[in-house]
Structure formats: structure tokens, C-alpha cells
């Protein structure tokens, strides 16, 4: 997809605010506003948010209609959670680690360096107490969070220059958020976060030396290959990035029970749907980047990978041992679940994938 045409269609409004009427309630029907951090029609994430809204609207037969406002249409992209908290929207579609300034515990529900994969994160949240502690974290702000999608293991990022070791990381101006950003800071990078629609311009202007967002499916649309050609795989800080749907908790609990269950179940379905979207389209987009745009696919040097693991362990154990109460309990829950879940992933899934790679061609 051509970046210029994509961004033109996305109609980003930057920081513009749109005055809108309060949610409509007529003859028992309700209209809610969903704000997102994604550009309009953004592959995987933005499309997933719109599809979720459409599914809720259709499945409720219009009793609950969801109107989607893409990044900048109602509020700036990184203020979507605040819009739900202050009542200017009823829903936010985003990623929980964008709000680590409100609670570090929230970073565990998006992506943790060397942490959980797509299936592992789903198992923790749905089956091993993750949702309950997430509810406690968001109760502080009067909202409720649900998993709403997952990108799978992400790309490590786009770099102007190749990396030969840790020396090349020192002072590197790198867009990367969450606990992963803290890992790269420990490795010597100068880290910043910014919304999807702002990254290309920063790379082009030279205010960034490197950037990671998601992976080929999104990155092709954003046009990063026009500025940087060194594309590193895989990310060790984004092993299974989850998106979230956040709702105003009081308004959610005031809905009829069937509509509450509908929102929850559509979120669960979309977690799997978005994941399938990325599994199907990331390799296709990567082929386009390599074959049509001359992108060079690389792996991080072992020195960086090991140092990243050491930094991640230091950060996670620090949060478990010395964070605030909710962060400590979230870290403990995450770490204990990971110890169990990795037994299957590393003992069953990984050996199978390696055997298939070595011996099976068709």
C-alpha cells in the first residue's frame, strides 16, 4: 500500500478536537463512541477496531451502536484512554502499555520483553487470574479492559544503519514504547514514544535513527522502508502484543446483561481474528518489502539479544520486588503464569517448529 495514499485516506486530525453530542439514547437504543489510537483503515489494528464496532452493532440489532473515531478525529491518539475516563467517549481501542504513566502494571497487558506469546497471554488473562488483577488496576480509573487483538511476535524495528553490537546502540534515537523501551534504554538508546502517524515524519526528518511499530503488515502501509532499509527480526521486547478495548465501567455495568456479554465475547473473537490477520498478512507484506523495495532483513547480534534478556530480567524482578502493590502483584501473577506456560511453548511447540523447519518441505 502506498504510504501517501494510505495516510491521505486516514485523515489524521493531529490534535484537533471535534465537538460531538452526548451518546444518543432513543427507544431503548444506545450509541457509544469508540476512540482509537490507530489511523483510519489501518491494517490489522484500525480495521480490527472498526470490525469490532460493526459486529457489536449488528449482533445487538442496533440496540448498541458503536461509532468509531480514528486517531485525531475526536482526541489525539495517545489521549484515547483519558477520553473514556473523562466521559467524552465510552470506549477506547488501543494498547495498555501506552498508559504506563498511570500505572506500570498496565504494561503487562500489552507486551513484556521476553514475556508471553499470543497464546500464553490469552491463557494468563482468561484462565490464570490475569483479568481479575487487570480489573483491579483499571478500577482506579473507573474503566474496564478487555483483550481485543494480538499482533503476534513483532519485528525488531527499522534502523538507518546496521547494528554490529552494543556500541552501535549508544545514543541511538529509537521510537519504542512500554517496558521494551526501558530495555533499550538500559542498552544505551535514547527512547521516545509517538503515535503511528507521527513516526515516518520523525524518521524522515532525522529526529529518529530507528523505529519499531508492529511488523511488515503495518510497516509497509506506514512507509518506513522509504527511509530505512535495515529491518531487524524478531523483536525480543514485543513477543505478543495485545490490544485492548476499554469501556466506561459504570456505563458498561448499566447495560443489559446480554449486551455486556456481547461486548466481552466480541472482544474474545476479535483477539483471535486480529491474530489471524497478522499471521496471514505479515509474510506477504514482508515479501513485498524485500522483493519490491530492497529491504534487508537482519537479525540482532547475539550481544544485543543477550544484553536485552539481562535488562528485561532486571526490570521485571525489580517491578515484582519493589513496585507499588498492584504492580508487584501483577508482576508476580505474570511471572508465575509464564513459568508454567513456557513449559508447553518451549517443550512442545518450539521443538515441533524446529523439526518442521529442518525436515519438512512440501
The CATH class of the largest domain, by name, is Alpha Beta
Q: Could you report the average pLDDT, rounded to the nearest whole number?
A: 93
Query: Would you tell me the structural class of the helices and strands?
Result: alpha/beta
| Computed CA radius of gyration, to the nearest angstrom | 20 Å
Number of strands: 12
Largest sheet entry: 6 strands, mixed
Named at the architecture level, the CATH assignment of the largest domain is 3-Layer(aba) Sandwich
Number of domains: 2
Element-level helix/strand string = HEEHEHEHHEEEHEHEHEEHHEHH
First-residue to last-residue Cα separation: 30 Å
Number of helices: 12
Strand percentage, roughly? Answer: 5-15%
- Give the uncertain stretches in residue-range form: 7-26
In the CATH hierarchy, the third-tier topology of the largest domain is known as: D-Maltodextrin-Binding Protein, domain 2
Helix content: 40-55%
Name the shape in a single word.
Answer: globular
Question: At the fourth CATH level, what is the homologous superfamily of the largest domain?
Answer: Bacterial extracellular solute-binding protein, family 7
Report on this structure.
It is a single chain. The chain is an alpha/beta fold and 362 residues long. It folds into two domains: 3-150 and 241-280, D-Maltodextrin-Binding Protein, domain 2, CATH 3.40.190; 157-238 and 281-320, Periplasmic binding protein-like II (D-Maltodextrin-Binding Protein, domain 2). The protein is 48% helix and 15% strand. The chain contains twelve helices and twelve strands. The strands form two sheets. Strands 1, 2, 3, 4, 5 and 11 form a six-stranded mixed beta sheet that branches. A hairpin with a 2-residue loop joins strand 1 and strand 2. The radius of gyration is 20 Å and the shape is globular. It starts with a helix and ends with a helix. Mean pLDDT is 93; it is low at 7-26.
Amino acid at each position: 500500500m502506498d504510504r501517501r495514499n494510505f495516510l491521505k485516506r486516514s485523515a489524521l486530525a493531529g490534535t484537533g478536537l471535534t465537538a460531538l453530542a452526548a451518546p444518543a439514547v432513543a427507544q431503548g437504543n444506545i450509541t457509544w463512541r469508540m476512540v482509537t489510537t490507530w489511523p483510519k483503515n489501518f491494517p490489522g489494528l484500525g480495521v480490527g477496531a472498526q470490525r469490532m464496532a460493526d459486529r457489536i452493532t449488528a449482533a445487538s440489532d442496533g440496540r448498541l451502536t458503536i461509532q468509531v473515531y480514528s486517531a485525531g478525529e475526536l482526541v489525539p491518539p495517545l489521549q484515547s484512554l483519558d477520553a473514556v475516563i473523562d466521559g467524552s467517549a465510552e470506549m477506547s481501542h488501543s494498547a495498555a502499555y501506552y498508559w504506563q504513566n498511570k500505572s506500570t502494571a498496565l504494561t503487562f497487558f500489552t507486551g513484556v520483553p521476553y514475556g508471553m506469546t499470543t497464546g500464553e497471554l490469552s491463557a494468563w488473562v482468561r484462565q490464570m487470574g490475569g483479568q481479575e488483577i487487570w480489573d483491579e488496576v483499571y478500577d482506579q480509573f473507573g474503566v474496564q479492559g478487555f483483550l481485543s487483538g494480538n499482533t503476534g511476535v513483532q519485528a525488531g524495528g527499522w534502523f538507518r544503519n546496521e547494528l554490529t553490537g552494543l556500541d552501535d546502540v549508544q545514543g541511538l534515537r529509537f521510537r519504542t514504547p512500554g517496558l521494551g523501551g526501558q530495555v533499550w534504554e538500559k542498552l544505551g538508546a535514547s527512547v521516545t514514544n509517538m503515535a503511528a502517524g507521527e513516526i515516518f515524519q520523525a524518521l524522515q526528518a532525522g529526529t529518529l535513527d530507528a523505529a519499531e511499530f508492529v511488523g511488515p503488515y503495518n510497516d509497509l502501509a506506514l512507509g518506513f522502508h522509504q527511509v530505512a532499509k535495515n529491518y531487524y527480526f524478531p523483536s525480543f521486547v514485543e513477543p505478543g502484543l495485545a490490544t485492548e478495548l476499554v469501556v466506561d465501567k459504570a456505563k458498561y455495568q448499566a447495560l443489559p446483561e446480554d449486551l455486556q456479554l456481547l461486548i466481552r465475547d466480541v472482544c474474545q473473537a476479535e483477539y483471535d481474528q486480529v491474530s489471524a490477520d497478522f499471521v496471514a498478512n505479515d509474510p506477504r507484506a514482508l515479501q513485498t518489502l524485500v522483493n519490491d523495495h530492497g529491504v534487508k532483513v537482519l537479525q540482532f547480534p547475539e550481544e544485543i539479544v543477550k544484553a536485552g534478556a539481562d535488562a528485561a530480567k532486571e526490570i521485571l524482578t525489580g517491578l515484582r520486588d519493589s513496585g507499588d502493590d498492584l504492580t508487584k502483584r501483577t508482576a508476580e501473577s505474570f511471572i508465575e503464569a509464564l513459568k508454567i506456560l513456557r513449559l508447553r511453548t518451549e517443550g512442545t511447540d518450539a521443538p515441533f517448529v524446529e523439526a518442521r523447519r529442518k525436515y519438512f518441505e512440501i
